[in-house]
């Protein structure tokens, strides 16, 4: 019978994942990425449908079918309001509804986790260890990047970069996170100089904002001196960019994407850099080459978000919820 899960129930599940449960999520996302790159016929996933409402809001619909499951996620972004949405899972064989999930936490969680898959492999490679990370943003995407960084990389130093004063930035982050970080308020005196020093020292940068202009000068990363990992997960439209498009064309930089087709249609940095499919490497293709495959040198991971990511994540959440006895089972839903 269908299982209904609220935002609070899903949040509790994701905040209390065991190491074994988190490993199941990473395995599910990896399998979905590999299938998308190596067996594209096994994944039915049209590009997302977007519409603009009369009040300037945006509504998105992201369908996908893979491994016996059909998933449809809908998201509504009203002006001045946080994103809200639902994820429904169906049996591809019978069409029966299997689960309906609140999607508020799912998007941030699955995107952040996807962006950490490559970094996890780099961390296990001598010379590419992750010791310090900068996270731009104070919203849900940034929150999940911080949560998962601290869970998957014990001892890593995290610096959150946000607009306003340090106090204002700290107010936007859940106090329950329980991590220590040096927050840089970009409106404070000397903050740009402090940010430049920070970016010259970090091993990875996570950009989690819907920005329409670069968040920092690309020279501050000093990629000609050392390998840096940059994750771009906040921008999702052609006019949005979190870094200078020129960074994607810099010597020695490998651009990895969740989907070449999707990024060539939706990723502002990729589009404005004038890249084509031959200059992009899908993450699934990397994982398909072996468990030890890693991108050496500087790497940019661009993720616009895919329906199959929601499918894989939603299915694992549903399995864990059933194991824990969480949620409401609806009897005779089709009756």
Automatic annotation (TrEMBL):
One of its GO terms (cellular component) is cytoplasm. InterPro entries: NAD(P)-bd_dom_sf, ODC_Mu_crystall, ODC_N. It holds the Pfam family OCD_Mu_crystall. PANTHER family: KETIMINE REDUCTASE MU-CRYSTALLIN, PRNX PROTEIN. This is Ornithine cyclodeaminase. It comes from Sphaerosporella brunnea.
């Amino acid at each position: 019978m269908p299982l209904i899960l609220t935002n609070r129930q899903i949040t509790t599940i994701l905040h209390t994942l065991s190491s074994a449960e988190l490993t199941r999520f990473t395995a599910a996302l990896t399998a979905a990425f590999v299938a998308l790159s190596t067996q594209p016929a096994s994944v039915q996933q049209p590009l997302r449908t977007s519409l603009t409402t009369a009040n300037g809001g945006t509504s998105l619909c992201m369908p996908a079918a893979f491994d016996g499951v059909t998933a449809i996620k809908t998201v509504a972004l009203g002006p001045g309001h946080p994103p809200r949405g639902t994820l429904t899972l169906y049996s591809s064989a019978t069409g029966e509804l299997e689960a309906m999930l609140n999607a508020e936490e799912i998007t941030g969680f699955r995107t952040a986790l996807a962006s950490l898959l490559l970094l996890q492999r780099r961390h296990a490679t001598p010379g590419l260890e992750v010791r310090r990370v900068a996270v731009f943003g104070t919203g849900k995407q940034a929150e999940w990047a911080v949560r998962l960084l601290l869970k998957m990389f014990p001892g890593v130093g995290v610096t959150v970069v946000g607009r306003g004063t340090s106090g204002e930035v700290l107010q936007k982050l859940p106090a329950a996170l329980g991590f220590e970080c040096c927050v840089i308020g970009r409106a404070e005196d000397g903050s740009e100089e402090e940010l430049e020093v920070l970016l010259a020292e970090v091993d990875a940068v996570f950009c989690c904002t819907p920005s329409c202009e670069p968040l920092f000068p690309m020279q501050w990363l000093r990629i000609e001196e050392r390998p840096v990992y940059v994750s771009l997960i906040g921008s999702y439209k052609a006019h949005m960019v979190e870094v200078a498009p020129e960074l994607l064309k810099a010597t020695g930089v490998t651009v990895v994407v969740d989907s070449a087709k999707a990024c060539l249609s939706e990723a502002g940095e990729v589009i404005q850099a004038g890249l084509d499919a031959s200059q992009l490497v899908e993450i699934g293709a990397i994982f398909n080459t072996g468990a030890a495959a890693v991108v050496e040198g500087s790497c940019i991971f661009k993720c616009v978000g895919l329906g199959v990511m929601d499918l894989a994540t939603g299915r694992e959440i549903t399995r864990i919820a059933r194991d824990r006895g969480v949620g409401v089972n609806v009897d005779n839903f089709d009756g």
